[in-house]
């Protein structure tokens, strides 16, 4: 893969991570329900949780389990 493609993928992942964080903040970290972050993002709650894990997104004040 070219450096340009690698950079584009990294930028896309950063954009996705930032969008997830923004919506989580707006929903006060509510993931499920009609007003939850998953619904706003058009994702299944389990998919959102998987992406949060993938991007290392953890609510401050909580510990991520290994």
Description:
By secondary structure, the protein is mainly α. The chain has one domain. 59% of the residues lie in helices and 0% in strands. The chain is built from 3 helices and no strands. The longest helix has 24 residues. The relative contact order is 0.13. The model has no long low-confidence stretch (mean pLDDT 91).
SSE arrangement, N to C: HHH
List the total number of helices. 3
Helix- and strand-based class?
A: mainly alpha
Q: How does the major sheet shape up?
A: none
Helix content: 55-70%
Low-confidence stretches: none
Report the count of strand segments: 0
Write down the domain tally: 1
User: Over all CA atoms, what is the radius of gyration?
Assistant: 13 Å
Mean pLDDT figure:
91
Proportion of residues in β-strands:
under 5%
Distance between the termini: 31 Å
Shape, per Cα inertia axes? elongated
Main attributes?
59% helix; elongated; 3 helices; 0% strand; 66 residues; mainly alpha
Summarize the helices and strands and which ones pair or pack:
Blueprint: H1 3-26, H2 37-41, H3 45-54
Summarize, please.
By secondary structure, this protein is an all-alpha fold. It contains three helices and no strands.
